[in-house]
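Morning!

As promised:
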Amino acid sequence: MSKLQGRLDKLRQWVWRLEDVLILLLLLGMIGLACLQIFIRNAFDAGLLWADPVLRVLMLWSALLGAMAASRHDKHMSIHIFANWLGPRPLHIIKIFTALFAALICGIAAFYAGWFVMDEYQYSTADIAGIRGWWFELIMPLAFSSMALRFALQILREIRTLLKGSPP
Amino acid sequence: MILWIVLILLLLAGAPLFTIMLACAMLGFYQNDIHLSAVAIEFYRVADMQVLIAIPLFTISGYILGYSRSPQRLVELTEALLGWVPGGLAIVSLIACALFTAFTGASGVTIVAMGALLFPALKHAGYPERFNLGLITTSGSLGLLFVPSLPIILYGVVAQQMSLPEPVQIDDMFLAGLLPGLLMIVLLSIWSALQYRPVFTEASGKTVWATIKAAAWEIPLPVVVLGGIYGGWIAVSEAAAITALYVLIVEVGIRREIALKDLPRIVRESMMMVGGIMVIIGASMASTNYMIDAEIPSRLFEFVTSHVHTRWTFLLLLNVFLLLLGMILDIFPAIVLMVPLLLPVGLAYGVHPVHLGIIFLANLQIGYFMPPAGINLFISSYYFDKPILEICRACIPFFFILLLSVLIITYVPWLSLALLN
């Protein structure tokens, strides 16, 4: 059991690191491309036609990867009426329900985002810089399914801390 | 009906907001026999809005500045320039925090980054602890009305989605925020100066020059960003890109105050905030459709216009509502959720959309530290290790001063509209 736990922890560390690096690269790409575009426009009075749509896609990808990271650290925005006043135990119980709900909704969103991407794959030929549109849209099912998984894991964590009786 | 009650309970219990909004959108589409992949199609509209690029770029700039020693240099510089004024250090704190928050957003970063510098400095200068706690907690959201604050950009984006007769320009929003933001700083400064005026520290010309030299790399930044945007030379998203590149080169490349190995962590932290905002914007794209289908805006419109008869009453009610909202909800979701509902109502009472935006942001800004539940009270309580009630008490005078300025901002539209053409 503990060996499996160790391997899982290691896997998780790798996935997290991979995401961090990916976010960094996407962001650096955004900064570079946006500044290049400004430079070309001012220096040569021209522009890269594909730069703006690609910038927006980079923004979406880095934001959704950021949202995935936010759900691994429980950092999504929410209303905080009870959170600051309740004791740890009732809070854990409440969190089980909210995480269950979040996992469910993200799961449904992932499923239908996948449906949308499949449709685009089959029927749409729109492209940016020669790359078919569905490639760009792929981040939506990926991000939502990963968030669903993370909220589901949060349920397990909350249950475990409740059973152990010690705050994390 | 039961479903809606469950959703509201989950919302109050702290379920992530974007999941609640997605659930509303899904329910709406489902009831209207629309295939649920519409949720994804609507969500993807986030990638159609050019100006949103500014959000990650300004955010990463703010985070990098926050983790470097720029806050320290900013404080030293303003102190050297303004230390001789009575109550100078308090005014220094207000100005430095406002500038810092404009770049980083009111996410509590100001309290942590600036508080670490200013709290001991204020104490050393002889200011009483309660005053210092109140000042820093208040300053955590001061500066939201200045360029390049993200909530201002977001208000512009949301208002632009609504096809108003006269579209809201983001540059106009930036201009409009200038005087109201200054009013807040001036009122707080006067009050601080009247309260305490300890230690008369006049910096020598040599010290002033040294602090200017120390901050030589940072000084062009507000000049370029503020000047560029206020002057109308560069678009917001371009200013954001240039700022990000500049900050990266200076703080990571030249000053090396941020190690390369820390960069992925800092970028991740900043993108977690951006991601949190973007999923809410994306979810709102889908849920707004449902709200319009269910005629919620027009019902609200009819309800309000039939019960509230004058513009002043409407504005007063709006103030109360937004203050309470700002206390329990972060500024970004508050804007995304409420602007589509309240902007048409405001227009019906003859409120200028730009003025309405400033009223929105000013109220939400105070909500951040409004007792008993404003989020910055808890950040301060946690960071300074003081009981929450003590922080609440410390904030009360500051709260009333800013409340006064919000009332002035609300009832004197000139303040917000004077600089517009």
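Chain A touches chain B through 61 residues (CB under 8 Å).

Hope this helps with the figure draft.
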